[in-house]
Amino acid sequence: MFRKLPDPPRHDRVTVHVDGHAVTVSAGDTAAAAVLASGLPYSRTTTVSGSPRAPYCMMGVCFECLMIVDGDPSRQGCQVIVRDGMRIERQLGGRELLS
Amino acid sequence: MTDVYDLVIIGGGPAGLAAAVQASELDLRTVLIDEQPAPGGQIYRSVERAERDGLAARLGPNYQRGASLAGAFRACGADYEAGCQVWQAEAAQGGPGQPPRQWTVHFTRDGQSRSVRGRHLLLASGAQERPVPIRGWTLPGVMTVGAAQLLLKSSRMLPEEPVWIAGSGPLPLLYASQLLSLGGRLAGYIDTTPRGRWRAALPHLPGALANAPYLAKGIMLRWTLLRSGVEIQHAEEIEARGTGRLEAVRFRTARGIREEPARVLLLHEGVIPNAHAAMALGCAQRWDEGQQAFRPETDEWAASSVDGLSVAGDAAGIGGARVAEVGGRIAALGAAHRLGRIGEASRDALSMPLRRERGRHARIRPFLDALFRPNRSVLVPPDDVLACRCEEVTVGGIRQAVSLGAVGPNQVKSYTRCGMGPCQGRQCAPTLAQVIADSTGQPVADVGYPRIRPPLKPITLGELATLAGEGAA
Amino acid sequence: MASADVLVLGGGTVGAAIAYGLARRGAAVTVLDGADDDARAARANFGLVWSQSKGVGAPWYQRWTLDSLERWPGFAAELAELTGIDLHYRRNGGLTYCLGDAEFDARRTQMERLRIQGGLPEDHARMLDRAELQSLLGRVRLGDRVTGAGLCPIDGHVDPLRLLKALHAALLRNGGTVQAATPARTIRFKGGSFTVDTPRGRFEAPRLVIAAGNGASALAEQVGLHVPIQPQRGQILVTERLQPMLPMAASGLRQSEEGTVLIGATKEDAGMDRGTVLAHAAPMAARAIATIPALREARLVRNWAGLRILTPDGNPVYAESPQFPGAMLATCHSGVTLAAVHAFDLAEAWAPGRLPDRFAPFHHRRFNVPQAA
Ligand SMILES: Cc1cc2nc3c(=O)[nH]c(=O)nc-3n(C[C@H](O)[C@H](O)[C@H](O)COP(=O)(O)OP(=O)(O)OC[C@H]3O[C@@H](n4cnc5c(N)ncnc54)[C@H](O)[C@@H]3O)c2cc1C
Ligand SMILES: Cc1cc2nc3c(=O)[nH]c(=O)nc-3n(C[C@H](O)[C@H](O)[C@H](O)COP(=O)(O)OP(=O)(O)OC[C@H]3O[C@@H](n4cnc5c(N)ncnc54)[C@H](O)[C@@H]3O)c2cc1C
Ligand code: FES
Hints:
The complex is a heterotrimer.
Chain A: E1 2-4, E2 13-18, E3 21-26, H1 31-38, E4 44-45, E5 52-53, E6 66-69, E7 72-76, E8 87-92
Parallel strand pairs in A: 2-8, 4-8
Antiparallel strand pairs in A: 2-3, 4-5, 6-7, 6-8
Chain B: E1 4-10, H1 14-25, E2 30-34, H2 47-53, H3 55-59, H4 61-75, E3 79-82, E4 85-93, E5 101-109, E6 112-123, E7 127-129, E8 142-144, H5 145-155, E9 157-159, E10 163-168, H6 170-181, E11 188-191, H7 197-201, H8 205-209, H9 212-227, E12 232-234, E13 236-241, E14 248-253, E15 256-261, E16 264-269, E17 271-273, H10 276-280, E18 285-288, E19 293-296, E20 309-311, H11 321-338, H12 344-362, H13 365-371, H14 376-379, E21 386-388, E22 393-394, H15 395-403, H16 409-416, H17 429-440, H18 444-447, H19 461-466
Parallel strand pairs in B: 1-2, 1-6, 2-3, 6-20, 8-16, 10-11, 10-16, 11-12
Antiparallel strand pairs in B: 4-5, 5-6, 7-17, 13-14, 14-15, 18-19, 21-22
Helix pairs in contact in B: 1-4, 1-11, 5-6, 6-9, 11-12, 15-16, 15-17
Chain C: E1 2-3, E2 6-9, H1 13-24, E3 29-32, H2 41-44, E4 48-49, H3 59-83, E5 94-99, H4 100-117, E6 126-129, H5 130-137, E7 146-152, E8 156-157, H6 160-173, E9 177-179, E10 186-190, E11 193-198, E12 201-205, E13 207-210, H7 216-221, E14 230-241, E15 249-250, E16 253-255, E17 260-264, H8 278-291, E18 300-310, E19 317-320, E20 327-331, H9 339-350
Parallel strand pairs in C: 1-12, 2-3, 2-13, 3-9, 5-15, 13-20
Antiparallel strand pairs in C: 4-8, 5-7, 6-7, 10-11, 11-12, 14-17, 14-18, 16-17, 19-20
Helix pairs in contact in C: 1-6, 1-9, 3-6, 3-9
């Protein structure tokens, strides 16, 4: 949905994995930005009707960016800063809690 | 942490940063807690990084101002908890000889909860964009103009074409010009400001002219857009269309209905106070008819109706970045006086120039409020539009609950689940209040918002359980 | 002045159930309800339809509860048919988790006592040991300290908000009216009729039900009924929606049809203060995790507090005014559980005239019996 402007050379690049696909972003980007850059059409489906959603506000107030970050579900992706090697998964429907 | 701060500030935008600088100048032990990884808040988001890599200059001097504010904050000596979401603040009576209240503020970072204590709490939690409930607003590809601007500021990202903007107010214009200057392209710009608003705003023009730079900037932005060949049109009944994702935008102009292909549709109908925390903490609210939003009642020193709790910046009422900055300083003076750290005379003297400055920046506000007052269909959308994105409750569902005798927001919420999802009503409470008011003939001011409860941000049960202490779990 | 056959003061779980029960028998019922932000246990409760541990030492209340459980399936079906609202009522058994041996033994003793008191069959309720409980939960692992649970197969749960909405909708369907934000201020009795003044006008009816929850005592005084009622604060935690994981409701832990997990409820003496307090909420979360460790990962969406409406012994009071025939007070703690008997049995018993003698044990004169030292 979004494309990156070319980074200035001094910027640190980091690689994250969105649903298993490597995506290169800049240090300081958010997990939600990484999903938007990944080309995937949506970032979660709702627990009510399964409708697809993507980040809407990017400022922490809509909770449309809930995603699984390094195995930790229901994180607000627009408030999570990426780390090299971070695993980001889209959150589809309600979570299953077992252990 | 056994120490008690004098001042705990929530929010690292202009209001919070300036308050921290002012408080530190007065030797208050201060801590600032902010969700963002770096100082700046919404308007100056990522400003330090952008300044370093040259993006800031391209975004304009108003943005660059944030760099010096961030610098002053970094140097002021206040403690700084970055990347931390405050999820709860609780007041307890202080011990003998202490001010009547002491706050414990709980925040989470990377799944770990911690807390600080302080004698005075300042909420500087800023603004959020007004929800824009239109048909199809939940489709991926539809987002707010502010969201796109944040992606630009902090991630250097541009929307993929075709891009449409639909909205009203200064922000869409500003973003459109920033987008164009960075090589992005706009398929079209839909101005949703109702025709005739200029006439309503005209009486406020003299005040606005005193803010000539702001006004000139607005006119210039429009000019930039026109010159770049972007089609600007007045339209209403904006609708996002598509299956599973945005494919087209449809709207009605004076000449009829149009539908155009779209990949990204950016909406904006002004900003409203992010008053969630203030409401949860029980601050009395006042309906602001001009801004069509509730805001916490505050006195001239930013003190709320709750003892030991102040609210400053946009969280207390939309005023823009410069007003927020000055408001943060005034709030810090008020807090210092309440804590007995400065006398009345020096508080008043220190605040004089600040009040003058605020008056200057605030003068354009009535003009902007009148000009950009949102369209009725944004406030009271048609029945088939989703009011609550999280629980997927339609406007018609709200009306149906009203017809069963639920005439207040809490009862309607119980009947519909509107506002019960993870966003806790941040995206639907304004619509809920307006639709109930419309259905029952009450003023919105009397309807109010549903009761806000903790946590302010969802934490895990595990984090909560850690507060139960040793051996509990 | 608006008139009706019956005025019901209070539109919470209790008032709405009785009002619906009277309306379905043909009475013209008007409910006067309080303000939107009033304390309403109806909107704050846990939603158990429950008999375990109800009525210890009070067989009449135990019986009343069991009667309600028996009526509930028909009651829920009737409301669904009338209003189209599925109450999410599930009568698939209820558990009381036990942590440690002492809890297990205490639960077994109480269960047995209740079973004997009620003359109930062996299979009415029983204890599950840890292994049985674990196999019931399937893939959801029990915490190490769980020793077992009490199980009562006829217990269950309901969405209390859907119940409240359906009761109101069903009342309207039966020709009743609800006056929201119209609290009763003064009650007068003249010429065989009650006149109730509210900020939104005067209402009149020959019969009156006072079911105003924590507001009931003050109103009842006006008709010569002196019923001591105390609020007790209860905090509840609710998580995000999760995939189904808890096969049946438990005391203090249940999963709603939507998938949210509810954890509750504290017992606090805080007057009418509905604030939440972490010092009490946190241990509740800790206990839930000790029971089902996977819950550690669940996100808390909301922590609220409601006020229970408690009589001195915690059991219901249904009492008629001696001076003013036609006025009745109804209050109880487990208004969700008792909703079916309120709508059916209580309304039926009261509709033709005075409450029959079998309701005598529910009268509040029981509190005036001097306690032996
Ligand atoms: C998208 C957008 C664009 C805008 N553009 C302009 C513009 O171009 N020009 C202009 O004059 N004004 C603009 N405004 C208004 C501008 O945001 C404000 O005037 C200014 O930022 C207000 O400053 P503040 O300090 O009150 O709050 P903010 O700058 O909003 O800062 C609030 C901070 O508090 C943090 N916060 C909130 N809740 C919590 C919590 N629970 N825990 C921890 N931290 C929390 C937020 O993350 C944020 O960092 C814009 C507003 C928005 C929403
Ligand atoms: C935390 C908690 C958990 C609970 N869990 C369960 C459970 O699992 N199972 C169960 O069966 N029960 C449970 N309960 C109890 C149950 O919720 C109550 O028994 C039931 O809701 C009481 O209904 P009520 O109508 O008496 O009072 P409420 O629901 O409190 O309603 C009182 C009504 O009276 C109105 N009112 C007040 N003053 C006036 C006036 N002057 N005039 C007119 N109207 C007035 C109010 O506006 C309100 O609508 C729980 C309660 C709490 C607090
Ligand atoms: S995109 Fe709205 S909360 Fe993250």
